[in-house]
Amino acid sequence: MRSQFDLYTRNYHSLSVGDLLDGRDAYHVHLAHLENVYATAIGLFRIRTEDPDANDYKAIGHAAQKRGQYKEARRLDNTVVRPWSWRASVMP
């Protein structure tokens, strides 16, 4: 029996830089037309210091459920990169 696909059990650290660039390039034109986007880049996901997984590793699924409760924008001064931060395309 095949198990249900679980997005949060994926190993995103296996993504290469080429994979990230392909993903960013695929959505760059769409994102660039949004009013508040002026650039796209690749990097590690920045975790807000108030998020449940900022200091201790939590299962990504559990942390993601709580992450939507915070309204403050991610900035360099209120976020951190941790060993469990996944690789991501970002919109500064």
Number-wise, the strands total 4
| Global Rg | 15 Å
Order of helices and strands: HEEHEE
Helix vs. strand class: alpha+beta
Shape: globular
Percent range for β-strand residues: 5-15%
Distance between the termini: 43 Å
User: What's the overall average pLDDT, rounded?
Assistant: 76
List the uncertain runs.
none
Largest sheet: 2 strands, antiparallel
Structural domain tally: 1
What's the helix count?
2
Strand numbers in spatial order across the main sheet: 1-4
The proportion of residues forming helix, as a percent range, comes to 25-40%
Short description, anyone?
The chain is of the alpha+beta class.
Would you write up a description of this structure?
This protein is α+β, with helices and mostly antiparallel strands and 92 residues long. It has two helices and four strands. The protein has one domain. The chain has helices at 17-32, 60-67, and strands at 41-44, 47-48, 79-80, 87-90. The strands form two sheets. A two-stranded antiparallel ribbon has the order 1-4. The chain starts with 16 loop residues before the first helix and ends with a strand. The model has no long low-confidence stretch (mean pLDDT 76).
List keywords for this structure.
92 residues, two-stranded antiparallel ribbon, 13% strand, globular
